[in-house]
């Protein structure tokens, strides 16, 4: 398996585009994106567990009942959530896209991201769709990735090439994240495409099995979005024998999918709102997987630890504290903690108590852009990783006045 | 019932003091406090549910097995948590205090607050105790309240006078809060004294019944401390017929206790680390109490809403979002939300969708120091309140480099 360029257009038969249609006032910001498959594709999706759900989610659930889709349309600048006419607008969006693409409306996946509770006007979307469709191109992944950004500072694209049943397959994705990120089933808007042939039920199985260890292990601010959604389209154009059951091919596909999703998780977490650092909490030696995951997520969610990491302060007591209130049953007197980065590794806690360490060395390690928080529980062999970011002045600035 | 001055010394027979003994480097900061009852008192306590617990908690559980105590000693600047010799140090602290006060060591409640995981030296405490005991005074509540502060910016003292069985009784308390505040059984260090006569088991019942609606409904940063503790001492010197069972007197006592604890909650939340505003989320119309509490606490814990309140931004979509992911079963299409402060009230959401409102008026309301977030669920008659604060640049500053 190897990393390649191309994002959602890496796989055969996929084109994409992104334009400015006028939802955002800033004309230099793209606000409408489209991903299109030359042929109908198997489609699987997972959505937020928030009871308050964006209108597009209800529309997609209906559209994807048959496990097939051919296009994804997504706007930024408005979440189309908590709006009296939200469903109607989401249906109009997909109908307009379907007409322009000459496909069926229920083969369109629709998504929105931005402010909650402000009516979404269909007008700019309707007038933007012709140019959006006309501009579909094989190197359009970056434009599409740009069109779904809100407070994101970098485009998030990943793709890999792998072999399935003797055929070269590709899988790639784009994502937007930044704030209101504490996925519980899925994270805010991830679109993945592949030319592998895989039946819709197996695609759903692969996606549902993957996200519990990837997107559901990311937290930027503890706020589970109303619009979280991960969608995978598999158009089969690689020509492999379709994956219809568990086995070697399914495992290979899961592995390729996981390579893409883990990297997207790292991109999402590292570009959290206001973030200056990517944090990865790696828990090992847990009695079981759930314990490992609970501990890792609790550490990554601690506001106090996140602020300490911003300040490059090796305040490991906050790691212990977050483990202690996580709800997981652990023997706190066995816990070891270390911080690791490109600058080195420093053990700071052994058997639940502090060890002497050089504050200077710790500072050097924590000043890096990617920090690993290593937690060894010495109680078994289960392991888990969670991804997050530091808590900074900019998070407060961005969210102190997001709407204006 | 009326508010009076005096804090933990308001009730008959209680004296207190606070000194600088040398745990903190800054000599102008008091770091050791003592509360003393002239006679042995009924004593009830609740502690953090964090599995990582400060050493003083284990010592107190042993000391309070008999329901009696006569003094509370507490240092700031070091939490005595995750230290190999923590229990030993906590036992030395109480033994030294007991010797100086000529009481039994197991009648001393011991507490520590500050950094986790740095060994606590007994030396400054041992050398500070003589002056601490010598200076005990009837107007010493403020000094004691000061000695337990960490990043707190104001002393937190409350007292009320009430009548029980024809006798005038008083109850008062001091608290420290600020950061790592998301109580789950109790909050970081609250000491309450009363001269009411009440049996230890009834005192514990009153305290345990109260905190689920008061301290457990406060969150400053979602981090449940390792050292949370609420202790109540009742020395009976008011001369009322001892409260030994449920009934009118017990209800009256509960009511007085609640008046003190609610006010302490407001003081704790309003003085959260870096906070500029007190937030109170008042949920009404819930199907049951647990739903009301879950919703209120979820709203008050949302980093996004907290940042919006700092920016005086009426971003009610974040209130809906936090209700939606709270885990409570609510009908989101029935929810009304309004913001209220001394400057007025503004409805912003009705039936789960936005209503037209003046952004200017909303700004004026949200620029006040105390903001109420009113959530009406229209599904029953249960209600709950949760207390929190805004998320600010100063929270990041304080916690980005707390140890140095």
Largest sheet entry of chain A: 9 strands, mixed
What name does CATH use for the topology of the largest domain in chain A? L-amino peptidase D-ALA esterase/amidase
Question: What is Rg of chain A?
Answer: 21 Å
CATH homologous group name of the largest domain in chain A:
L-amino peptidase D-ALA esterase/amidase
Work out the largest interface and the residue count of each chain.
Answer: A-B, 66 and 66 residues
Spatial shape of chain A: globular
Classification by helices and strands of chain A: alpha+beta
The low-confidence parts of chain A are: none
Helical content class of chain A: 25-40%
What is the succession of H and E elements of chain A?
Answer: EEEHEHEHHEEEHEHEHHHEEEHEEH
């Amino acid at each position: 398996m190897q990393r390649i360029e191309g994002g959602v257009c890496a796989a055969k038969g996929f084109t994409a585009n992104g334009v400015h249609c006028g939802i955002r006032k800033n004309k230099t910001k793209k606000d409408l994106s489209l991903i299109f498959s030359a042929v109908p594709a198997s489609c699987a999706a997972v959505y937020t567990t928030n009871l308050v759900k964006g209108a597009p989610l209800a529309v997609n659930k209906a559209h994807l009942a048959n496990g097939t889709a051919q296009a994804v349309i997504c706007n930024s600048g408005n979440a189309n959530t908590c709006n009296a006419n939200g469903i109607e607008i989401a249906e109009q969006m997909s109908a307009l896209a379907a007409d322009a693409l000459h496909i069926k409306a229920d083969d369109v996946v629709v998504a929105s991201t931005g402010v909650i509770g402000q009516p979404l006007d269909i007008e700019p979307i309707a007038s933007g769709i012709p140019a959006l469709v006309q501009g579909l191109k094989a190197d359009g992944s970056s434009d599409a990735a740009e069109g779904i950004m809100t407070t994101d500072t970098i485009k998030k694209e990943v793709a890999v090439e792998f072999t399935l049943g003797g055929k070269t397959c590709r899988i790639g994705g784009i994502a937007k994240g930044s704030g209101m990120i504490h996925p519980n089933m899925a994270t805010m808007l991830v679109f993945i495409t592949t030319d592998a042939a895989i039946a819709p039920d197996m695609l759903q199985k692969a996606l549902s099995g993957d996200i519990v260890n990837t997107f559901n292990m990311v937290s930027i601010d503890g706020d589970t979005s109303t619009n979280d959604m991960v969608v995978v389209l598999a158009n089969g154009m690689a020509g492999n024998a379709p994956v219809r059951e568990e086995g070697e091919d399914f495992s290979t596909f899961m592995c390729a999918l996981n390579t893409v999703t883990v990297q997207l998780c790292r991109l999402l977490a590292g570009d959290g709102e206001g973030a200056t650092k990517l944090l990865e909490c790696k828990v090992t030696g847990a009695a079981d997987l759930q314990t490992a995951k609970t501990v890792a997520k609790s550490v990554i969610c601690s506001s106090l630890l996140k602020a300490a990491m911003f300040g490059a302060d090796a305040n490991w007591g906050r790691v212990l504290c977050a483990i202690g209130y996580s709800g997981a049953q652990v023997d706190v007197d066995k816990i070891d903690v270390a911080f690791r980065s490109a600058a080195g590794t420093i053990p700071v806690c052994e058997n639940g108590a502090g060890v002497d360490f050089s504050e200077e060395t710790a500072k050097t390690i924590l000043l890096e852009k990617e920090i690993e928080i290593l937690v060894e529980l010495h109680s078994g062999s289960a392991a888990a990783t969670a991804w997050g970011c530091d808590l900074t002045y900019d998070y407060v600035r961005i969210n102190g006045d997001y709407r204006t």
